[in-house]
């Protein structure tokens, strides 16, 4: 994104940057920048629908979730080898290091790749290799959230789980959670009730997208039927006041993605986004980038754009960062040093 946007000159930019933050809602396939798409397409001799990097970037004008998903799945077709998955993931870590991200919980969509004949081992090996190197080289820890595509059937989700389970031991330091993403409307949580029940039995941590384009009822379904611990997006929860009260009382985190909501027209204007209103009611709101290459900004951009549009105070920005650490799947012992670093940084 150009540095000419008004929020790039935000007076709290360096303050926000130095706060230790976790990113809890990030699709690794959504970090593929057009330049890397072109490089990988050339490497793998794959034809693209756009003549140039600029033409591809110019196509990133979306009218809704599906118009984005069409480009996102097309972009992911350039990923073939373990090294491609590694390059994509390491590029993300290098980019967010400067944003002050200390921990990330990364979603990946195996079905987008296995449906093209890429083995699930290749997908895991490339992404996990970069996660392990980033921990050592950059000090960024991570977990992986294997996500099912909700426009496909539950039987296909089960088949993906079965294919992935033999790899669980090899990647037990990273793969600890299950998610649900892709086209929301018409694909309600109950469609995946049995596979989520199985994942719970297997002691995976559970999250799901709900209440992005879909109704508040899908958020209730994600909590009651899928038994998730966090809601990805969840911004439409506000349409159901009893649900809002429940989310606050039960301290359920929403992983909100402001620039994504703007680009996909979930909101018309960041200045009217409900994240500030919900935060001020003590809901556990976190800020995240979703698919940063497609939506015009990484984690710091999401904090800055929100701070600018919604007049967030220093205290509120610290609360958002604290929420991100507390709502992560890190153990209390692992959270403790990050939280004390945050308290220290909040006095700067
Ligand atoms: N997959 C990648 N980004 C997504 C989003 N914002 N909603 C649903 N599925 C997605
Ligand atoms: Zn998402």
Give an overview in words:
This protein has 348 residues and is an alpha/beta fold. The protein is 48% helix and 14% strand. The protein has an eight-stranded parallel beta sheet. Helix 5 runs parallel beside helix 7 (120-138) and helix 16 packs antiparallel against helix 17. The chain is globular and about 50 Å long. The mean pLDDT is 97. The structure holds adenine (ADE) and zinc ion.
Percentage of residues in DSSP E strands: 5-15%
* Named CATH topology: TIM Barrel
Could you give the count of β-strands?
8
Segments where pLDDT lies below 50 for 5+ residues?
none
Distance between the termini: 27 Å
* Average residue pLDDT: 97
Bound molecules: adenine, zinc ion
- The main sheet orders its strands as 1-2-3-4-5-6-7-8
- Fraction of residues in H or I helices: 40-55%
Rg for CA atoms: 19 Å
User: From the helix content, strand content and strand pairing, which structural class follows?
Assistant: alpha/beta
* H/E element order: HEHHHHEHHEHEHEHEHEHHEHHHH
CATH architecture: Alpha-Beta Barrel
Query: So what's the CATH class?
Result: Alpha Beta
Count of folded domains? 1
Shape: globular
Biggest sheet character: 8 strands, parallel
Say which CATH homologous superfamily is assigned: Metal-dependent hydrolases
Helical run tally: 17
Per-chain topology:
Blueprint: H1 13-18, E1 21-27, H2 34-43, H3 53-58, H4 65-76, H5 82-97, E2 101-108, H6 110-114, H7 120-138, E3 141-149, H8 154-164, E4 175-181, H9 193-201, E5 205-210, H10 216-224, E6 230-233, H11 241-249, E7 253-256, H12 258-263, H13 275-280, E8 285-287, H14 292-295, H15 299-310, H16 314-326, H17 332-345
Parallel strand pairs: 1-2, 2-3, 3-4, 4-5, 5-6, 6-7, 7-8
This protein binds adenine (ADE) and zinc ion.
Zinc ion binds next to strand 1.
């Amino acid at each position: 994104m150009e540095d000419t946007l008004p929020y790039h000159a935000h007076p709290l930019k360096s303050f926000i940057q130095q706060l230790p933050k976790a990113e809890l809602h990030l699709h690794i396939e959504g970090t593929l920048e057009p330049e890397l798409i072109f490089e990988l397409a050339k490497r793998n001799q794959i034809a693209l629908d756009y003549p140039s990097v600029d033409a591809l970037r110019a196509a990133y004008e979306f009218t809704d979730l599906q118009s984005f998903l069409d480009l996102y799945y097309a972009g992911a077709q350039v990923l073939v080898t373990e090294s491609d998955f590694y390059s994509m993931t390491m590029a993300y870590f290098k980019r967010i290091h400067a944003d002050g991200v200390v921990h990330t919980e990364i979603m990946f969509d195996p079905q987008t790749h296995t449906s093209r004949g890429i083995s699930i081992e290749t997908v895991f090996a490339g992404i996990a290799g970069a996660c392990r190197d980033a921990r050592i080289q950059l000090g960024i820890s991570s977990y992986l959230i294997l996500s099912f595509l909700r426009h496909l059937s539950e039987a296909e989700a089960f088949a993906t789980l079965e294919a992935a389970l033999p790899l669980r031991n090899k990647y037990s330091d990273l793969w600890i959670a299950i998610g649900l993403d892709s086209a929301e409307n018409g694909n309600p949580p109950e469609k995946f009730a049995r596979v989520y029940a199985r994942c719970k039995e297997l002691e995976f941590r559970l999250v799901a997208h709900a209440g992005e384009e879909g109704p508040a009822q899908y958020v209730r379904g994600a909590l009651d039927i899928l038994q998730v611990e966090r809601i990805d997006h969840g911004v439409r929860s506000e349409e159901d006041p009893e649900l809002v009260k429940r989310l606050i009382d039960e301290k359920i985190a929403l992983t909100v993605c402001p620039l994504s909501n703007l680009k996909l027209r979930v909101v018309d204007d960041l200045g009217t986004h409900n994240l500030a209103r919900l935060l001020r009611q003590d809901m556990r709101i976190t800020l995240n980038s979703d698919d940063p290459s497609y939506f015009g900004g990484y984690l710091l951009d999401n904090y800055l754009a929100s701070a600018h549009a919604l007049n967030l105070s220093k205290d509120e920005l610290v609360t958002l960062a604290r929420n991100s650490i507390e709502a992560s799947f890190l153990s209390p012992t692992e959270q403790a040093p990050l939280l004390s670093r945050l308290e220290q940084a909040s006095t700067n």
